[in-house]
Design a protein that fits this description.
The chain has helices spanning about 15-20, 70-80, 120-130, 135-145, 160-175, 190-210, 220-225, 260-275, and strands at about 25-35, 45-55, 60-65, 85-90, 95, 105, 180-185, 210-215, 230-235, 240-245. By secondary structure, it is of the alpha/beta class. The chain folds into 2 domains: about 20-35 and about 45-100 and about 185-280, Rossmann fold, CATH 3.40.50; about 110-180. The relative contact order is 0.18. The structure holds adenosine-5'-triphosphate and magnesium ion (MG). Magnesium ion binds near residues 71 and 184. Magnesium ion binds near residues 72 and 108.
Length: about 290
């Protein structure tokens, strides 16, 4: 779908070259507590705790963690959509003090304007930035073709399947060619086959451009197959449990699942989730819980 031609590159011999690149997204001591109500009725949700994370320019970084551990919160803080309760957040060397425009976001559920057709939903990204969308129509059509929606440009969102809506949202995030792409479980609504194809296509797109990508997922496989580094988060309040370098040569085709580095990383992450009670081994009885505490 996202059809891009790329050259094969070997896995880095060591992390030195990557480590030398400048830090593009920098989080230091970031915490987030959501509060609602006042006085005795006040409720607080401690979503994130002491997050230190540096994403380097051009890096593909994946975050994997259990539901509710603060992954979307982290993404919204980087995008400037929610303020951090504590800590420092910088993008491109500047503190984040409000909504950022020099990035593309794919939200967990595709937010499309129901009264606009698919093409105009892609172009809205430019209108929101005060840019005349007309010169971008051709580029928008090209992106829609890349995500397999060439024949659906004049359709409205209600005429699309869940996966097609998400693909339209991906095209929209790419239209203004921002250097940073934030993707919150972008393939969550896709069927398994489309998901696999989108994974291959996203890697090709990333290899052909110089974008910095933050990719959030529940899928251990997807994180390891896509990323240069995988960040594993703990259950809420979300903390960084471990950061792993993934040394698998690119492009990582369908056979990457057999690479020893894939097997090792996937097993390590599974082990962390087993130890934290996020996953339970076969045959283990899951004890009843008293509900989700605030
Ligand atoms: N706007 C909000 N107001 C209050 N609490 C919130 C808000 N957004 C998220 N939370 C809470 O913060 C915690 C983390 O939520 P978040 O959406 O960041 O998790 P997540 O890791 O993205 O989960 P999932 O994998 O299910 O998408 C949850 O307990 C959630 O209830
Ligand atoms: Mg989320």
């Amino acid at each position: 779908m996202l059809k891009v031609v790329t050259k094969a590159v070997p896995a880095p011999a060591d992390g030195d070259a990557a480590a030398a690149r400048r830090v593009y997204v920098d989080l230091r001591g970031v915490a987030k507590t959501y509060r609602r109500g006042h006085g005795a009725a006040a409720r607080a949700t401690h979503a994130l705790e002491a997050v230190d994370l540096a994403i380097r320019e051009g890096e593909f970084l994946a975050i994997v963690g259990p539901s509710g551990c603060g992954k979307s919160t982290l993404l919204r803080i980087i995008a400037g959509l929610h303020p951090a309760s504590e800590g420092v957040v910088e993008v491109g060397g500047k503190p984040v003090a409000g909504p950022q425009t020099n990035l593309g976001i794919v939200f967990q559920s595709p937010v499309l304007l129901e009264w606009r057709n698919v093409l105009d939903n892609v172009l809205v990204q430019l209108e929101l930035r005060g840019v005349d969308p007309r010169p971008y129509r051709e580029r928008a059509m090209k992106l829609l073709a890349q995500v397999g929606l060439a024949d659906f440009a004049d359709r409205h969102p209600h005429e699309l399947s869940g996966g097609m809506r998400q693909r339209a949202a991906i095209a929209r995030a790419l239209i203004h060619d921002a250097p940073l792409l934030l993707m919150d479980e972008p393939f969550g609504a896709l069927d398994a086959l489309t998901r696999e194809q989108m994974r291959l296509d996203l890697e090709a797109l990333w290899m052909a451009t110089n974008k910095t990508v933050l990719f959030i997922t529940h899928s251990i496989d997807e994180a390891v197959l896509l990323a240069d580094r995988v960040v594993v988060m703990s259950p809420r309040p979300g903390r960084i449990e471990q950061v792993m370098d993934i040394r698998i040569p690119r492009p990582r085709g369908l056979e990457a699942r057999r690479h020893p580095a894939f097997v090792e990383a996937a097993e390590r992450i599974t082990g962390i989730f087993l130890a934290r009670g996020v996953l339970h081994g076969a045959g283990q009885v899951v004890p009843p819980t008293g509900g989700d505490p605030p």
